[in-house]
Write a structure and sequence with these properties.
The chain has one domain (about 1-70): 2-Layer Sandwich (Alpha-Beta Plaits), CATH 3.30.70.100. It has helices spanning about 15-25, 55-60, and strands spanning about 1-10, 30-35, 40-50, 65-70. The chain is α+β, with helices and mostly antiparallel strands and about 70 residues long. The chain has two helices and four strands.
């Protein structure tokens, strides 16, 4: 089932950060859409929760050095 969620992600400061987060999340199986907004510290995410968990997405972002506010 497709789920939409908005994550608050701390530590993004520039276009490079935006691109890193977007590329990281887009590569995950089950992710359908990603929109990163650096200024708002938000990642808008649409994913299939039968293919990937939200926890797995958060972990992938955190492995890039950012902090997901849970």
């Amino acid at each position: 089932m497709s789920v939409n969620v908005v994550l608050t992600v701390k530590g993004m400061t520039c276009d490079h950060c935006e691109q890193t987060v977007k590329e990281t999340v887009t590569q995950l199986d089950g992710v359908e859409h990603v929109d990163v907004q650096v200024q708002q510290e938000q990642v808008n995410l649409e994913y299939d929760n039968s293919e990937i968990s939200l926890e797995a997405v958060c972990t992938a972002i955190e492995e890039q050095g950012y902090v997901v506010v849970r």
